Sequence to fold (617 residues):
Amino acid sequence: MTFLQIRDVHKSYGDHEVLQGVSLDVARHEVVCLIGASGSGKSTLLRCINALEEISSGDILVDGDVVSGRGVDVNRLRRNVGMVFQSYNLFPHMSVLRNITLAPTRIGGVAKEAAEERALALLDRVGMRDKANAYPDALSGGQQQRVAIVRALATNPQVLLLDEITAALDPELVGDVLAIVRELAGDGLTMLLATHEMGFARECATQVCYLHEGRILERGSAEQIFEDPQEERTRQFLGRVLTGGRL
Amino acid sequence: MAAATAVPAVPGTRQGPPPTPPARVVPLALAGLAVAVVAGGCAGLALHSLHAMIEHPAAWAQALIWLLAVAACLPVVPAVRALLAAPQRTRLVAAGDLPGARASAADGREHATVAMGYALSVLIGAALVWFVTANDGAISHTFLRWTFIDQAWSGVTKAFWVNIRVAVAAEVLVLVLGLVLAVMRQLPGRSGRPLRWLATLYVDMFRAIPSIIVLYLVGFGLSLAKVPVVKDLSPIWLAIFALTLTYSGYVAEVYRAGIDSIHPSQWAAARSLGLSYPMTLRTVIVPQAVRRIVPPLLNDFIGLQKDTALIGVMGVTDAFTQSRLVSSDVFNLSPVIVVAVLFVVITIPQARFVDRLIAREQGRRAGRTS
Fold:
């Protein structure tokens, strides 16, 4: 059953059309990887789904309800649709615990104790419980990104959008973060990832979309895309990534 | 340095022209010595006239003057050391030890420049002493007469409390009004436009009008026009009101710069969690902005504190007004110096306090883990 539906979405910045009619269906418990070169529109698509960017035309539906356009309660939408960013974006003036409990206590109506208990349980899961009272600046990039994932999970989102979450990490830290995403996928969390980690996409994705110049040029199972790409451009892209040693 | 030492060590392998010996030290050393001697001489003359001005200097004052005279001659020492480095350089060049020659030439040049730096400071000090003692001490008599300072001290200090109270009250109000204005200037969307416009107009206006004019207009205008409520306020509250009007314009700009300096990704992160615009501003953006704006904010506060010396124009007896009363009685400016010193005394601790805040913030960012 389709949970997240993107219908012919266009997005322009001035004269530049970043998304030129993207359509995508994501069922519950699916893990969809968006691959493609920088500037192909992966991040923009994720930001549009989260209503951080306004779309120019088209529709975005979550659970059958249109969530794009005027008059939509974006704050409510965002509680259902969590997002993790490339540069972590933790709040530097708050402890790890406060970063995580801010949204649940301030808008989710969860009591402070309950929110902290849950935050600690989540931190435990990502091996960060001992850093609950640390401040983001004292953490490594990988640790910050793990906290950012927990922060996004703390509001119990139904979909998680992950925007190149390992792109800013040192190579040896990538594994820790991806392990968590893999585990979440195993739990059945619906996820949409923009990523350059082809190995991860191949292993975990139920659906891979190759974006090129604001369009989904090719989509299919991981096997299809990586083993037998139909489009010449997909083949070229994968070839370049392969020689770059990312696969 | 490693490359330089390697060159002469392997004779016969060099392709280019032979390495050059270091430049001579003597001219620079002589210049340093000359400046040091001139500075010492000038300081001697200035101290002599200081000695002459104090009619019967106490033993400790005499000793202090001699001590200063000796200190003024100290820059001669590095100048002489620079001169001593010169023959050593010549000797090493002759012996073919180019790296050694370069090192002693560098030592010599450094001694010479140190001599110049200290000698110039001595010259400046001597000029100040000379200025104070010129005209048989007329200048120090005009500004620094102890009897008048003593006479004005208690009245001026008491009146200075008015300045402090006005400054503190205005600062509290400015902090609030400035933030309101800054947030108004940042309101999003079409609905925010008129408020944005008004806030901009306010900031432009009150930063343009000199604060003494605002004080004057508020102090006399509001009561003349019988503006309700305001006309019954005491002059002190009117002064606070007027300074708040002026400085909230400045502080609004400081806040705005602080809010602007927070990276947009912080907005995105907070909004993506479902936090509303006002909630994001309150819990994420403003708390971070406030930490960054403490130094420029204190700058404006020091300006505000100094401008409390202007509230005399609206009939409030502050420290400056009080000191001028005494001053015109005795026909001497020493009482006004008291006010100046008081302002310095309250400002320096604030500057140090901010230094500490900044250091603490940096320390925390560098390595706090719990």
User: Anything to note?
Assistant: Chain A has a mean pLDDT of 91.
